Amino acid sequence: MIIKFFLLVISFIILLVLVSFFEKFSADPELYFLTFGTVLGQVLFPIWFFQGIEKMKYITIINIVTKFLFTIAIFIFVKQASDYYLVPLLTSLGAILAGGYSLYLIYKKFNVKFSVQKFNIVTSHLKGGVHLFLTSALSNLLTSSGTIILSFVSNNTIVGYYSASEKLFRAIVGLFTPITQALYPISCTKVNQENLAKPYIKKIFTIIGGIALILSLIVALLSKSIVNLIYGIEFINYSYVLAVMMIWLFFGVINNIIGIQYLTAMRKDKVYTYSFMAAASATVLLNIVLIPHFMIDGILFSMIFGEILLTLSMLGLIFRLKL
């Protein structure tokens, strides 16, 4: 928790710099500060504990209940355009409530006591998780880099069309998050047993990869109807963005199986990190080169190229190192 709060402070300082010195962010600083509350909620939420004791149902129940309640609150309290600030405020309050209640739950129900740790213990854990942290940080930077670059070389309308499709994409990706989170503790046990590792990975690769493939095809085929239903006819010309993003989704799920459920679970996270850094570097470079010329299409090509490169890099290292 101390490490998470330390990173929270660093993140808040970065946000302060952005809203203070960059015109794109200084136009509406209150919106960014209110949204930042969701980061605090994520810091408070002890997902690590529920994963460790393999009680992921608490993650699902708490998140669903709080998100449902505060989504209803948004519909109740947001009456006009000037109430837009209530959306990030209520969303942040929901995340903070979920995190706070979770801490109370593990203290009361599981008798977990909190205490300040010694500096050497904190640094030891920080060093131990550096590869996974780098991968996670690079992943967030990677997914946001396209939108950031697009905002500098195009207008708000184009950014809005892309962001709308990306929100739908993130919602679909979110369907796999509880599954992969629930699998990780199991993966840590299975892949470290030589006779179980490969059959287990093949099994989840077939099942989850198959689900991802089928879902991707369905969404791609129905992308026009989905976009029209949610955003209206004016967004229909950009429905292809959601369809193409399904390639990104499929390889993203495959990379989670290989990188997290296999490599990281068997404590070969360095292999995953190095592969990810190579793919991320190539993706950001392509974003810088392609987006000014091809706008949204440049992002799509770069992200899909990066995901496929990550898949090939990890598989290449797995076979080369005989993992």
From TrEMBL:
Keyword presence, Transmembrane helix: yes
Subcellular location: Cell membrane
Membrane topology: Multi-pass membrane protein
Top-level taxon: Bacteria
Name of protein: Wzx
UniProt cross-references to InterPro entries, sorted A to Z: Poly_Biosynth_Transport, Polysacc_synth
GO cellular component: plasma membrane
Keywords, alphabetical: Cell membrane, Membrane, Transmembrane, Transmembrane helix
A Pfam family matched in the record: Polysacc_synt
Keyword Cell membrane belongs to the record: yes
Sequence intervals crossing the membrane: 31-51, 58-78, 84-107, 128-153, 168-184, 204-223, 235-259, 271-293, 299-319
